[in-house]
Amino acid sequence: MSAGVLVSDHVVRAVGPALRRVAAPLRLVVLREGSIDGDVTAVEIAYFSGDLFPARAREFVLALTKADRLRWLHVFSAGVDHPWFQQLLERGIRITTSSGASAVPIAQTVALYLLALSRDLRRWTDAQSRCAWEPHDVTDLQGQTLGVLGMGSIGREVARLGAALRMHVVGMTRSPKGDEPCETWPLTRISDLLPLADWLVLALPLTGETRGILSADAIARMKPGARLINVGRGDLVDEAALVKALASGALGGAGLDVFAVEPLPPTSPLWTMPNVLVTPHSSGTTPANHPRATAMFLDNLRRWRSDEPLLNEVARG
User: Fold this and answer.
1) CA angle (78 as vertex; 73, 79 as ends), nearest 5
2) pLDDT tens profile 143-164
3) How does pLDDT run across 199-241, given as a tens digit for each residue?
4) What is the pLDDT of residues 243-285, one digit of tens each?
């Protein structure tokens, strides 16, 4: 029985000829809404593409329960902290991601938070809704310190945009490589950065090491009036402590795209805080992400067929 590659019908419509060229002689097994074309038990490679999330994710996962020969899964997103992915890794299945596909739009949303919070955009839009001419002073980003936790593709792009806004950028990563686009410290120095940063951007993956990295104690050590931006994962932050700091004025504001519970419950005070911007985990959602992620899958599929190292492979454990 020849091996199969599980992909969605959307992917076949978008890049069918190129996919068949790269995959040959592997057979395509196509997940259609409510049905599967091909033998899913022959699947050794699967692509969890963005068009399947979230509405058809369950359908995809159920299909893979029959794929006992699965050896490699490519994921459209960068985050693979869900327990399901960990279970696959524990079974010895290789996982790669499309990390970087949405880095530019996410970083541009971070720039939106920076500009909107520093200008108190909500005051202007409120005044506009009332046809009221109410000028107010704004915060000058130039010369302010921007701390960026996480120097992956998103963090690096955030650092570049911060520099373009003439901010002093300090990046943080577990092990600086020396090729980062800004001054970069190891994460072990987070206590040194917290009192210095006027703005703190979280662009870290969620791991055992990073979960709760912005604890209540860490929030208390942040510079008075600092603003927090989180485009990583909600569980990086002690959300209750964050709410308290925002309400008291210890922190000046926040731009939040991710939360401990999603969707954010209607009862959360974050919804109505005047110094908070809430977006629904969509900071990098653009139609162009799907083609970029699929191009990364095709590149990795070519590498797989040529027995070359795969890009963006997730380490087990």
Assistant:
1) 90
2) 999 999 999 999 999 999 999 9
3) 999 999 999 999 999 999 999 999 999 999 999 999 999 999 9
4) 999 999 999 999 999 999 999 999 999 999 999 999 999 999 8
Q: Could you tell me the domains of the chain?
A: 4-101+287-305 (3.40.50.720), 103-278 (3.40.50.720)
Both tokens assigned to 215: 């604890």
CB atoms within 10 A of CB 190: 18
33 catalytic? Reply is no
Q: Model-level pTM? A: 0.92
Active-site pick, 281, 303, 305, 313: 281
Set 262, 302, 308, 316: catalytic member = 262
From the list 233, 239, 290, 292, the catalytic residue is 233
What does the alpha-carbon distance between residue 272 and residue 283 come to, in Å, rounded to a whole number?
20
Residue 311 sits at the vertex; the CA angle it makes with 305 and 312, to the nearest 5 degrees, is 140
Whether 281 sits among the annotated catalytic residues: the reply is yes
Q: DSSP character for 189?
A: G
233 tagged catalytic: yes
